[in-house]
Every structure is written in structure tokens, then in C-alpha cells.
Amino acid sequence: MSRIAYVNGQYVRHPEAAVHVEDRGFQFADGVYEVCEVRQGMIVDLSRHLNRLDRSLRELKMASPMSRAALTLVIREVLRRNRVRNGIFYLQVTRGAARRDHYFPAPDTPPTITITAKSTDPSVAAKKYANGIKVITVPENRWDRVDIKTVGLLPNVLAKQQAKEQGAQDAIFVDRDGIVMEGASSNVWIVTPEAELVTRPAEHGILKGITRTTLMDVAAKLDLKVAEREFKVEEMMAAREVFFTSATGICVPIVEIDGKPVANGHPGTVSASIRDAFFDIAEKTPI
Ligand code: PDD
What we know:
The protein has two domains: 4-120, Aminotransferase class 4, branched-chain amino acid transferase, N-terminal domain (D-amino Acid Aminotransferase, Chain A, domain 1), CATH 3.30.470.10; 125-282, D-amino Acid Aminotransferase, subunit A, domain 2 (D-amino Acid Aminotransferase, Chain A, domain 2, Alpha-Beta Barrel), CATH 3.20.10.10. The protein is 30% helix and 29% strand. It has eight helices and 16 strands. The strands form two sheets. Strands 7, 8, 9, 10, 11, 12, 13, 14 and 15 form a nine-stranded mixed sheet that branches. It has a seven-stranded antiparallel sheet with strand order 2-1-6-5-3-4-16. Strand 7 (133-139), helix 5 and strand 8 form a beta-alpha-beta unit. 40% of the residues are buried. Bound molecules: N-(5'-phosphopyridoxyl)-D-alanine. N-(5'-phosphopyridoxyl)-D-alanine is lined by residues 35, 156, 182, 185-187, 207, 209-212, 245-248.
């Protein structure tokens, strides 16, 4: 079955799906995006993802490409046309195509909107959950507004590639004071020796992950104590568990950091119980 993408009002075959050469997303990374999980035919946490999309657009003074009702319709249609039951959709909105100029284009320039969807193999995620992943730490070198989900992800790309070249799967940004920021495409959590779940505040300096927010609902249901506070690399290395949250991985255990094992070097039980409860508690929108 061939994949279908949505590009500016049309459903097109994936190999032919394209935007203009002068699109501002392409030229300036002048665009925002969302990635949302689909599981068992349900879109996970759609409202929260679309709320964050609205915020990202607002922060960049970009117009909304369409109403929420219309957008939801298109997302579901893309998922249906690609027969996704387990997978993700990726949505991007840019400030549109215009002659290259750093200033914003004329206000009537239509935004570019693209939506793609793909199926993923649940057994790949299951293997990650069973084995955990290895990560490296890298110095924070991103701009000050990573709270906006923009497509400007070059530092994240370079960090992940560096991890791969060093035999790890992912990277964690650490600031110059040794404070843990977030993963290259996820938020970081630790479980302290006192069994407290800790993640850093998300008002500034990191992306406020939707999975992170829903995980707090899950923790409340499971009677787990959560603290939002900064923590340093040393505290992370001494944690009982360390894990990532993101829409693509939900809750992925980290078993090795910079070549050193986390606890006994195996995935922990807290992240497993959170993962088990997550889907029941998250918002589910049928395709
Ligand atoms: N990334 N931090 C960063 C830098 C991210 O790129 C992401 C998500 C997150 C977690 O956010 P959420 O829980 O809403 O997925 C945190 C997506 C999955 C990506 O770029 O593919």
C-alpha cells in the first residue's frame, strides 16, 4: 500500500509530496511541528498536542492554518488513508513560501501545512522497554526558546548522531552548571533512592512534553510522588531509575549514561508500571 501525505489542502502520494523551494521552513526553519502517537487505532493525547501547537504558533506570531475541527478531520483522514493502527503522525506548519527575506512575508502569505503518518512495529518499542537504552551527555548548545516546538533541531540532530557514533542511542543536554536539561527528543526523569519521581521544571529551557504532562496524571493515579525540580548529572547517576518520555517512546528506560550503568544496569520497575498504566489514562481519540 502506498503512503499518502497531506500537503496544503491535498492528499498526495508520499513520493511526490513536496513543498516549494522557497518555503520558509526549508530556508529559515521558520516553522513548528507536532508528533503524536497512535495506538490501537486511537490518537493519544490529541487535545494536548493541538494546544501546544497553538502555543508554538502564537509564540512565533504565525497564523493557525485551519480550525481545530478541520485539522482534526485532516489528521484522522491521513491516518485512515495510511491505515495506521499503531504509529505516529507528524504535522508541520511553516510561515509559508515567499521570496527569501528574513522579515516576515506579507500577512496574506498562506502558511504551509503538511501531515504525514507512518506505522511502527510495536515489537521494536517492546525491545527498547525490555533492554533499555544507552545515552551520552552533551553540552547544552541550543537557543533560549526550546520551549517552542520549532523545526530548528540541528543541535538535536548533531547530538543524536554523536551518540550513535559513540555506540549509544540518544543524548541528554546538560548545561554548564551540570544541570540536566532534556534529551535530544524527549524529557528526562529520574527515580530517586527515596522512590520520588523527579523531572525538571518546564516553564523555560526545555520543551514541555505532552507525555511528561500525562505522566503526572499517571503518577497521581499510581500514588507515586512527583517533584518538579532541577537535578544534576551526579544525582542522575545515583538514581534508582532514569528514563525518557516522548510521544514516540512513551517511557523508555535508560540503563547506561556515558558508559556507566544506571543502578544495576537493567530497566526499573517504576518506569514499567507507568508505561503499563499510561494508555488507559491518556486521552484517546478514535481515528
Ligand atoms: N520530540 N523534548 C524534545 C526536545 C523533544 O523533541 C520532544 C519530542 C520532547 C517530548 O515531548 P512529547 O512528550 O510531547 O513528545 C521533549 C518528538 C517526539 C520528535 O521530535 O520526534
